[in-house]
Specification:
about 130 residues; mainly beta; Lipocalin; 8-stranded antiparallel beta barrel
């Protein structure tokens, strides 16, 4: 009888759980993006195309493919997904871009794409990209 009650309790708790990940449209991400800067860390370091002598472009296509170029050389490509995730501790909703083994929080305001590599640390790095028209 204890096993049945335990099993029933688990089933009821799972039934009441809310799914914390939902895939969403990525249409605002589609296009080509040019790297502006990456800043962060304890020292507040900033890297730019000028300081690194690198041009980084990201391309996202409507068929959920991405390509990453450094100085016009293809460095990586593959599939990507965009989804909303609810953080268990704060219950905040974040938009995540998952490509390859990388998952980044992102936000698009006008023609600028903002990446934050981890929303749980204060000294993490963030990158900005401008949409190429």
């Amino acid at each position: 009888m204890k096993k049945i009650m335990f099993f029933l309790a688990i089933m009821l708790s799972c039934y009441g759980c809310k799914k914390d990940v939902s895939f969403i449209s990525s249409s605002s991400l589609i296009g080509e993006w040019s790297w502006i800067s990456t800043c962060g860390g304890i020292a507040g370091i900033c890297y730019t195309p000028k300081s690194t002598n690198q041009r980084i472009n990201l391309v996202f296509t409507a068929d959920s493919m991405y390509k990453s170029f450094i100085n016009d050389t293809l460095k990586s490509s593959g599939n990507f997904q965009v989804y909303k995730s609810i953080t268990p501790d704060t219950k905040d909703t974040s938009t995540i871009l998952q490509y390859g083994s990388i998952g980044e929080l992102f936000l698009i305001i006008r023609d600028t794409l903002y990446f934050t590599y981890n929303n749980l640390c204060f000294d993490c790095f963030s990158s900005n990209y401008k949409r190429i028209k």
